[in-house]
Amino acid sequence: xxxxxxxxxxxxxxxNGINPALLTFSEYFKMTTTKTEFHNESSxxxxxxxxxxxxxxxxxxxxxxTIKKDGLFFEIRxxxxxxxxxxxxxxxxxxxxxxxxxxxxxxxxxxxEYRGLGLGPMLVNxxxxxxxxxxxxxxxxxxxxxxxKVYQSMVRDALASGLYRRLITQGQMTMARAKEIIAxxxxxxxxxxxxxxxxxxxxxxxxxxxxxYGDFVLYDKKLKTLIDEDREHNxxxxxxxxxxxxxxxxxxxxxxNWAMLRQFGGDTPKIKTFLxxxxxxxxxxxxxxxxxxxxxxxxxxxxMISRLEGPSLVRGFKSYKVIPTxxxxxxxxxxxxxxxxxxxxxxxxEFFHQMIECAHGKFHYQPSSGE
Length: 371
Description:
Shape: elongated
Number of helices: 12
Largest sheet: 7 strands, mixed
Order of helices and strands: HHEEEEEHHHHEEHHEEHEHEEHH
């Protein structure tokens, strides 16, 4: 997988598997707050210049995500070392916010020049996901408010995912305990959003992303609107906007190089056939044979191949070698249309990374039975 397509996971510093959503607010507050005093709001005021006098961007080698706030693009980068971890938020090469260790406590700082963009709550959420029981060392008023908001979002997510209902059904939690936790969160009432039915079945609205390394994503351009609006609460519709995904992985063999579909899926048989055509053309251009599994050859366009060889055992399971006819399947023109559309607004590849992430999430790799 090309490095630029990798989605970097957050560090896991939670060996005891603590889930704050299974604690009341009071219990979680006591777990994380060894010092109950509050600090003045100005106690941790920090300028952009001073913040950048500490750890440079090079100390945060892993790109976790790019985000957009008020027209500004930011990179969220991760530092993970054996005894230390941290998060840095960068506008180009300038660090604007950070999470770091301060004498064993969690320190979240946002430069004065970049406050009011919601970076604080976002960083607290990420930090508490990584290490939920890290001591706070006390709060400023705004830090305490962020802590409350993050706890509320954890409880809200547990409700939305059905976690409490599942634990109650399995006998691992009582109804009274669930009610106690939910009541302690004091969740603000959310405005009801009207149901929406976004049609993603019009091929005229579809675009084909063509990567440099044999990766293809077919998606509806309405995906951009949904991500811009609120990706977290549009997951259902975003999933429908990803129509198909294929990733052709190349392998070096002892006698010859070869390729297979590492990830493959589509919403309809026609979409799967379209993506198989892309894969056949890509490997034919590279002069490398393509091996397909039995459930993949069902979607072969017979005009693209002269025959199949096999079955043979490749990587321990039955596969068929595709012998193409040489018929041309021109996907590059479609790829250029998608690239022009995306580059008209996606200067820092924010949408690109999220689109790729959505495709991997919907059509994630499932190892075959022989692996």
